[in-house]
Structures are given as C-alpha cells and as structure tokens.
Amino acid sequence: MTGKKKSGHAKAVIRQRKDAVERSQTGDMNKVDESTGRGLFNKLEELLQNLNLDIRNVRGQGYDNGANMTGKNKGVQKRLLKVNPRAFYMPCACHSLNLALCDMASSCPRAVSFFQVVQHIYNFFSGSTKRWTVFKKHVKGLTVKPLSDTRWESHIEAIKAIRFQAPEIRDAIIELSTSADFDAKTRGTAYSILTREIDNFEIILGMVVWHRALLAVKSVSIKLQTEDMNLDDVVTKLKDLVSFFKDYRRNGFEGALEEAKILATSMNIEPIFYEVRVRKRKKHFDEIDEIEEVQPPLQGMESFRIEYFIFIMDQAISSLKRRFKQFQAYEETYGFLFNIEKLRSLDDSTLRNSCVKLEKYLSYEMEFDINGDESYTELKVLRSFLPNETKKAIDVLSFLTNMGGCYSNASISYRILLTIPVTVASAERSFSKLKLIKSYLRSTMSQERLNGLAMLSIEADMLSSIDYDSIINEFASVNAKRSIFTSITSIVSS
Fold first, then answer.
1. Would you say 330 and 90 are in contact if contact means Cβ atoms under 8 Å apart?
2. What is the pTM of this model?
C-alpha cells in the first residue's frame, strides 16, 4: 500500500512538471520573438496577466548578467522596477562570480599568457592519438583538460592536472621532442613547449598561485549553486572570499614562492625569474642637467610580485566588491534579520530604527507591506522566544509558520527576505540536461520523447526512489481491466 502511494505521488508530480514543460515549450504564449529588454519585459508582463498574477505583488527578480536582462537603463529588471519598485532585483551570484574571475584572468598580459600555455599543453596532447599514448604512458593519474569559456571556476581542473603532475608531463614532452617515431614538426613543437613553457619558473609559480585562488573560488561557487542557498548565506560566503584574497595578497606570495621552488627542483629547473636587459641611452653634454634620471623597470621576482601577483589579487578584490554591490545594499537593509545572534544583541533603539527603515523600503506610494512599529514590537518579543537551535532566517520563518500567524509583520519580512533570488543556476540545469540528451546523434527526436527524457534526467533523485514493481503491477492491472471491459462490451453488443 505504501509503495503504491509513493509511486502514485511521484507519477503525479512528474506528470504535472511534464505538462508545465510542454506548455512552456509548445505554447504560443511563451514564444519570444524579440530579445531586447522591451520585448522580453512585454512578454513577461503578458505571461503574468494570462496567469492572473498581479505584477505589483512581485517581490524578487533574478536573471543572468546579460545586458538585455540586467541593463541599468533599458534592461528587464529596470523596466520592472519602474512598474513595481518593490520587485527587488538581484544579479545571479554564480554569473557575477564567473565574471569576476574573467576580470582576473584578463587583467594583465602575464595572466592571459599563462592560460594560453595551459590550453596549448592540452591541445598538443589531445591533437594526436600517438601523442596521447605517450602522455598516458608517463602520466597515470589525472588527464589534461581544456579550459571552459563559460565556467571559469572549472579552470582549476585543467590547472590541477598540470600542477600535481608537472614532472610526469615534462617527461612525456621530452620523449616527444627526442623520439624518432615522430616527425620534425611534432618534435619541434614539443621542444618549444619544453623550453618556453614547462621549463619556465614563472609559469610554475603562476600555476601554484592560480590553483590556490581558484580552489577558494570553486568552493564558494559550489555552495552558491545549492538549492537551499539564501541571501544571508551568500553575503557571508562573499565576505569570506574577499577576506581570503586580502589575506593571500598580504601573506600568500612567500608561501607560493617556496612551493614553486620545491616543484621546480623536482623537475630539475632553476628557480630564476626572467629579466629584461635594460637599454641605456647615451646622453649628450647639454642633456645632463635637463633630463631627469628614468627609473629602471622592475625586474625578476619583484616584477612578478607587483605586476602580476598583487595585480590579479587587487583585481579580484575590486571585481568582487563591484559586482556584488547589490548584495551589500540588501545587507544594509535586511542585515539585522540575517543573524539571530545579532538580532538578539541589538538594543531597542537600533532595532526600532532598523524596522522603520525596512518599512520605508517595503513601501510604494501609499502601499505598505509591514508596519515598522508593530514589526519592532513583534521582533522584540520574538527574539526571546526563539529556540536556541534557531540560527538562520529560514529557521525563523519555519518557527513563525508553526506559530500560526501570531507575528504577521515579522513573518512577511522574513518571507520577502527569503524570496529575493540569489542565483538562476538551478533553472539553467534543465538546459544543461537538454544539451546532454539532444545531441547531433538524436537530432530527429520527437518533442514528446525529449520532454520525457529531460524530465527523467532532471528528476533523477525522485526517479531513484520510485518502486518500479508497484508501477508495473498497477499498469498490468489497468490493462487487464481494460481488456475485460472490452470483451464484455463485445459480448453485449453481439
């Protein structure tokens, strides 16, 4: 009995989601002919009207960082804010983090050159099965991987394969550069990679620095893509990431340098920096007192530290602060509700001022979502009744829901706080699944089959919990009843 109920419920949920997918893909109502900010907003407004939803009740909107969606003047978010200023906009945290990494990687020529080296090594080995066989002969662990243009935190996988297997990869390239089994072009390319890229201490040091930086970013990126991520957790994670880059900028270079020296020594590479010869200009007798001495350019380790390491760290800090400025703005308004310990520690005057500020923030013209004075009274009483295990905003809302509406203003405040979207990564997973399912080998797949396979792939967790035996038995019993009914009908008619 229990198995049948679970399977029936699962089938009902899957059927509802399948119908929603079919309506969104085949219905003319969702067909978009114009991709500008105005066209997308008009289609969004039309969709809300057809669903009998009031656009003035929207309290959160989130998109990726495309200009037509997030434009400050003509984007969808700006047009929606003009109609409803309480439709609080939040740029996708995952896309913003990805763009911050793009800013780091393109901030200086040395960073651009470093990633070109990583991609070049992958292209060289993957371009030939014979070269790949030599690579597998020497490297028994991770394989080299290409760089992704859209998911910058995935660069760590490409760097990790070279960072921890550099001696083995170097041995493979040495064999390719000296073996008579390969043509002159292959040997020449291998020798060029060996002398200009692998045996370059600056590349090795850059590999250590980028691996440490991308490792910190990847942990935050994975956390941001979880389904239960909310605004207070995002602000905490971003503050921790900015603090990491600040600390790494101050104290990380010496440790990275020592780590790179150990790696270089294991590869029989001298840990020296490339220095440019300083050109001297001959001065004429009448220029000695008129022309000031030109400061020579930075050389060696100091040049790498200031013009490369510190430069990309500063770029990371400034990009994170600039691209996540909206998160800081929401923290200033909702910050007293984020942390329960902070809420309990506020004095009465600060708590009242915060509630009044939130009332103004949640009002438009003569409409108010909450009353500031009532919210202050409710929160003052509520913070003393909250259980000790209550730590996050979602826990407070669960507690308020179980109270049955005793704290209406506080409940509305927390509901709006948790409604503001953080990322659109979960919505884009369906597109990633479609790219895996509908490949060039399945170009003739019907719409119905594509919807079914996509739903099975997206709801894999639910699918694994279904009792297949009960579904088969139920399906067989239905067919049996149908055949009996058909036979009886034929007998009666005869």
1. yes
2. 0.74
